[in-house]
């Protein structure tokens, strides 16, 4: 009887906990008691004032100018991957074969769309509200009078110099989107918000000042009763039911790696790259164009075509070595306007495998320039001081510097300068300078001699090699967890496992396991599910941060209660 009562109380508690996982492309939000979260496009459109400035964030990363040198670099990398695939064998031991691209292109050039009569639709601009959220943004005319904003880009707040790009503007967009979902999808009225608790999933590499804004948003503006923050990689291990793992999170616009043990993400192992599934989509589109993509009017800069290309990448992309030659596929295109729906048929060959492998062969990511963006490490986020946080590295270094100057002055006054213990003081004072040097060294480890990023397989090895001891390294090499919705191609886990296995130092070679769908959970909601599990644990009672505590103590209480090393 008591167990039934405890179970009912647990369910009531879980119903009052809202888990929020904001991403660059999608927002995942739901009650901790839900099987799956609500997923909507993390985008907002605001009607432009007459004569006001225009701003439209793209649904896919923009393609860089395709110079002759760039096209040659892309083609060389494509051929390298193609030759690697042809040298592989199928599961039956036979050698793989491929259909020549010219033959596929000839078929696609002959392919004509089938028109579906009476399938017209109109843009929604005339009947839409002044503020439009989520998938409804896709039904607005791209040439219309709306500014379109994605509040998060490359895993960070989307701050820029254009209209709506200020910190206040971005946080206002987040509040509008989240409150809209809470009201319309979770049916929670603003007056009842104090009865609910919020768990926010944050990146493993975070900006401290932005965390302050997020907590203020949850407690002071949206009005939750209390909240706590959890890093996405830590949440992923809870969602997968693993005590430790090297977590590889491939999102839409960023990819991150870190080693997690017993709920702690080791700071030195964290690294984030500014590429993800959206960059792979652009690579896939370039490969489709080389094979005479039959939908010739496609423009990846428009929202509906960007969403279409993303869907085609998810449906067609795979790393299954048993699939050889060309495969016939079909898809539909329907845009508001005079044109009816069109059904297309096309052939794809190894292009469906080459695109997903661009996360290991980063030369292909040159199409968006993402392969030459400097990686970010934990030291990068730790070096951002905030006036409310009186124990950050800059404060300690400054007070240490003043102490050193005072000691030196006292020594001069006493004529005993030579006896001061200078080396120890230097260790205190030069902490920031040493940290900057370490940051540059860490980042260089994730770059090739040509200046471009290493592949994801090499990044995993570099991250694990930063673990503090050999035992932990052995455990991490034995359990690699792949999460995120950026690249869910069938077989990518096996390919990554084979690539990492070749690079593991002999002393750490044990039985290797790469987990891509833990407990049959969709990898893109593993972190959300893990945060929901964490929020219902008995030990989570100490983590909750209330609005009065936040108002009184600010960042100091967040430093004390955070479940991660500040």
TrEMBL record:
<dbReference type="InterPro" id="IPR043129">
    <property type="entry name" value="ATPase_NBD"/>
</dbReference>
<keyword id="KW-0804">Transcription</keyword>
<dbReference type="GO" id="GO:0005634">
    <property type="term" value="C:nucleus"/>
</dbReference>
<comment type="function">
    <text>Plays an important role in the functional organization of mitotic chromosomes. Exhibits low basal ATPase activity, and unable to polymerize.</text>
</comment>
<keyword id="KW-0234">DNA repair</keyword>
<dbReference type="GO" id="GO:0005524">
    <property type="term" value="F:ATP binding"/>
</dbReference>
<keyword id="KW-0805">Transcription regulation</keyword>
<dbReference type="GO" id="GO:0006281">
    <property type="term" value="P:DNA repair"/>
</dbReference>
<protein>
    <recommendedName>
        <fullName>Actin-related protein 8</fullName>
    </recommendedName>
</protein>
<dbReference type="GO" id="GO:0006310">
    <property type="term" value="P:DNA recombination"/>
</dbReference>
<keyword id="KW-0539">Nucleus</keyword>
<dbReference type="InterPro" id="IPR004000">
    <property type="entry name" value="Actin"/>
</dbReference>
<keyword id="KW-0547">Nucleotide-binding</keyword>
<comment type="similarity">
    <text>Belongs to the actin family. ARP8 subfamily.</text>
</comment>
<keyword id="KW-0233">DNA recombination</keyword>
<keyword id="KW-0067">ATP-binding</keyword>
<keyword id="KW-0227">DNA damage</keyword>
<dbReference type="Pfam" id="PF00022">
    <property type="entry name" value="Actin"/>
</dbReference>
